[in-house]
């Protein structure tokens, strides 16, 4: 197959579209041998923690095996919402945790969104932030019941900004006949994730943080006084506090955390430039979009409104991004047939991390702080959890977040390698098919 055959445009690259304007930052500077706080992972969670610590007079050290922001923090779709992300958890959420506790989680999610907007303004983060709203499509008639419960949960926080959209009005949101209705969220936004993580890193450095790339975390030992000896590929670091912020890239050197995370590759494509008029023809409100399927889609216009960016679970194994691009192109054009002739310029993937309870987690274990398992909704969540982790490091205790009261579960014999994902993927495909969802043109 030639480079330009099939859905591929001339110059097609297997690289995040976002990196054209803001590639991850190399920070190859000398590694300090001591730190008040050592943070493993230079993504959103680690940088947000370092920024909050710096604003309170504590200079953190952030290390990453790759360039700062290289992981999912700069590869995601750049879609933001508050408590709306809680709707992706299992249907027995209230039964499992109790109505009062779930209300606390929802209220915190909504407040986290407001805090995020305040952070962007306060730090003057250059990230093309736009409050555009979100549309979630119902892939089957019964999915509308789930969206109704989500809207009620969100509106119970006092926001009153979630609305159901009947099937006959779906075309006001997206040019498709595939959805049976949907939910509109007004408290939702978009940004350029690579620009956001770059600006967040710059803000953390202004606050006194030291960011170092090319440093692999190889283990830690807790000393009698409660401090840590952190082993790295460039020598040991003595740190008063330690935080893990590696999420979908957590390695064997952090076995307790790794056993609680299910890393899953998520795939995205960017279309060639088709112009704002044509983008508006398929996405009239220029929102961020998702749906209710097990194998969900998420998509949006590019920040300049000249392309469509489309993502999903194109594979449940660690597949190559050229093949996944062809799969996502089929998904996209099946959903929005008006894009059938549009070709692709970029394809990429990034690891998201799920927890077994499908909830995000922040807390402390054996003195090690962590913020992990964003379950595919990490920009606001991990920014908020960075602030929570910093407050805990400074002695804030569990009162700083309702999420700190969640146990971080694992399963017997699980070691962090998700061997079961192909089985889960097949089950998800079957579930979607039983609901009536079929992708035309599947090969």
From TrEMBL:
GO terms for cellular component: cytoplasm. Residues 37-391 form the FAD dependent oxidoreductase domain. The keyword Oxidoreductase applies. GO terms for molecular function: oxidoreductase activity. InterPro entries: FAD-dep_OxRdtase (IPR006076), FAD/NAD-bd_sf (IPR036188). Keywords: Oxidoreductase. This is FAD-binding oxidoreductase. It comes from Neoroseomonas soli. The lineage of its organism: Bacteria, Pseudomonadati, Pseudomonadota, Alphaproteobacteria, Acetobacterales.
């Amino acid at each position: 197959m030639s480079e330009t055959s099939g859905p591929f445009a001339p110059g097609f690259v297997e690289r995040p579209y976002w990196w054209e304007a803001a590639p991850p930052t190399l920070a190859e500077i000398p590694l300090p041998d001591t730190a008040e706080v050592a943070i493993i992972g230079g993504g959103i969670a680690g940088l947000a923690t370092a920024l909050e610590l710096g604003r309170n007079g504590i200079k953190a050290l952030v290390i990453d095996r790759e360039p700062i922001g290289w992981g999912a923090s700069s590869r995601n779709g750049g879609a933001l919402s508050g408590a709306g992300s809680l709707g992706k958890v299992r249907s027995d959420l209230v039964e499992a945790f109790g109505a009062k506790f779930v209300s606390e989680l929802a209220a915190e999610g909504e407040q986290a969104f407001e805090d995020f907007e305040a952070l962007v303004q306060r730090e003057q983060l250059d990230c093309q932030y736009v409050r555009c709203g979100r549309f979630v499509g119902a892939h089957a008639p019964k999915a509308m019941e789930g969206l109704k419960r989500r809207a009620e949960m969100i509106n119970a926080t006092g926001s009153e900004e979630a609305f159901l959209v009947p099937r006959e009005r779906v075309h006001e949101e997206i040019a498709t006949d595939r959805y049976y209705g949907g939910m509109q969220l007004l408290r939702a936004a978009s940004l350029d994730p690579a620009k956001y993580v770059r600006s967040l890193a710059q803000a953390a450095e202004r606050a006194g943080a030291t960011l170092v790339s090319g440093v692999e975390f190889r283990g830690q030992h807790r000393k009698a006084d409660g401090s840590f000896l952190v082993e790295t590929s460039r020598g040991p670091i003595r740190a008063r506090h330690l935080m893990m912020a590696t999420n979908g890239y957590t390695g064997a050197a952090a076995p307790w955390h790794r056993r609680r995370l299910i890393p899953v590759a998520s795939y995205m494509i960017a279309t060639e430039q088709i112009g704002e008029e044509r983008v508006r023809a398929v996405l009239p409100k220029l929102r961020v979009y998702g749906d209710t399927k097990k194998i969900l889609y998420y998509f949006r216009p590019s920040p300049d409104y000249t392309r469509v960016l489309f993502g999903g679970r194109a594979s449940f194994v660690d597949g190559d991004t050229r093949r996944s691009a062809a799969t996502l192109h089929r998904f996209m054009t099946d959903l929005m047939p008006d894009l059938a002739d549009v070709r692709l310029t970029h394809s990429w993937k990034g690891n998201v991390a799920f927890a077994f309870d499908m909830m995000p987690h922040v807390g402390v274990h054996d003195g090690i702080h962590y913020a992990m398992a964003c379950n595919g909704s990490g920009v606001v969540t991990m920014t908020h959890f960075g602030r929570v982790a910093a407050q805990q490091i400074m002695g804030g205790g569990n009162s700083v977040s309702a999420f700190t009261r969640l146990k971080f579960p694992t399963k017997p014999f699980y070691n962090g390698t998700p061997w079961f994902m192909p089985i889960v993927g097949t089950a998800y495909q079957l579930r979607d098919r039983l609901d009536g969802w079929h992708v035309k043109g599947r090969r």
